[in-house]
Design a protein that fits this description.
By secondary structure, the protein is mostly beta strands. 10% of the residues lie in helices and 37% in strands. It has one domain: Sandwich (Jelly Rolls). Strands 1, 3, 8, 9, 10, 11, 13 and 15 form an eight-stranded antiparallel β-sheet that branches. Strands 7-6-5-4-12-2-14 form a seven-stranded antiparallel β-sheet, with no helix packed on it. Pfam families: Pentaxin.
Length: 230
């Protein structure tokens, strides 16, 4: 992960020299969203400086929720679901790009940490979704679309307006870790590397050097296990 770590450190210094948010190395740590339902969330930076034609988002989550919840929300003033990773029920994820979505049905597993990666490219409109290091059938979404750059990125909620508008019953409760975002699509090998917590390529958002702000009842705690790989 050091490649991603060093790149993120340089990017932070260049794009947000006066941001006031000190990057933190969250190795072997997690965000714990404690209450259900809640308005707790984590705002993460930096946001991209230019519009996106490609992206990959990866993260791990651990919860016993069976109701809908948002994991990763990238909202702009024009579109609250510019990018949204949403889980409406066990065994199903929705990936939104530009307000439209595709549904991925995933194998139901015993209650444990679940690692997901979502990737999208504008030129083909191909959306990929990986669960615990394994790909699901690819789907088509928003071909030739461009994702706006001026955004608020939130973990643990579904933004229904720019930076807010949360529905408490779409909130996440549980633990979250290993959040990454790239402004390009990862190769299959790097998707598996993200699941295995191996060295990762340059990234926009990286868990080893994350600028974040806790909002509400969410705390940073050590992991309860050495590895989160199932």
């Amino acid at each position: 992960q050091w490649t991603c770590y060093v790149w993120n450190l340089l990017l932070t210094a260049e794009l947000h020299p006066q941001s006031g948010l000190v990057p933190q190395d969250l190795y072997r740590k997690v965000f714990v969203f404690r209450n259900d339902p809640n308005d707790a969330h984590v705002v993460v930076k930096p946001e991209p400086e230019q519009s996106l034609q490609n992206f990959t988002v990866c993260l791990r989550s651990f919860t016993d929720l069976t109701r809908p919840y948002g994991l990763f929300s990238y909202a702009t003033k024009a579109q609250d679901n510019e990018i949204l990773l949403f889980k409406p029920k066990p065994g199903e994820y929705k990936l939104y790009v530009g307000g439209e979505f595709v549904t991925f049905r995933v194998p139901e597993i015993r209650m444990d940490w679940e690692h997901v990666c979502a990737s999208w490219e504008s030129t083909t409109g191909i959306a990929e979704f990986w669960v615990n290091g394994k790909p699901l059938p690819r789907k088509g979404l928003r071909k030739d679309y461009s994702i706006s750059a001026e955004a608020v990125i939130v973990l643990g909620q579904d933004q229904d307006s720019f930076g807010g508008g949360f529905d408490l019953y779409n909130s996440f409760t549980g633990e979250m870790a290993d959040v990454y975002m790239w402004v390009y699509g990862l190769s299959p090998g790097k998707m598996r590397a993200a699941y295995q917590s191996l060295q990762l390529p340059p990234c926009l958002l990286g868990w080893r050097n994350l600028q974040y702000e806790l909002k509400g009842d969410v705390v940073v705690k050590p992991r309860l296990r050495e590895t989160l790989i199932i």
